[in-house]
Amino acid sequence: MKHFMNMVNRVSVQSFAQAGKSAGRMMSKAFGKKTAALCVPLLAGLAFFAAPAVTQAAYVTAYQNIVYEKDVVDTNSIYNPDKDHFNCVVYTFHSDTDKGQPYIYKYMYDEGEMVWKIHADGQWNTVESGSLAASVLKVCLPYLK
Known about the structure:
By secondary structure, the chain is an alpha+beta fold. Helices cover about 40% and strands about 30% of the residues.
């Protein structure tokens, strides 16, 4: 990589130097040889400072963090005491070898607002679309009596 960058720098400096020589020739025709003799070193110096510096490559190691989380609805556990309430058990797995942590989801249909609500933190909250509670509700609705 370093050899390649040195080669690129050398080509850049040479091309700038050639541009300076051709500019010097054009100026010597226009202004005379003395003015051109002063401009050629000036243009060559500018070419040296305008050339790209040698760059160093940074090596980056990719890091991948795989999060395994799976939620399974136990459809055999759906308990429907009346038409507006039901409970179900959802197992949450955090790895392939995990036995699963059971959680009880309690749902209620609010006829006044015409929305499903879930019992969480001691209160009834509206089920938001795209949430895990909404996904569990979609699985359970066909099993209700």
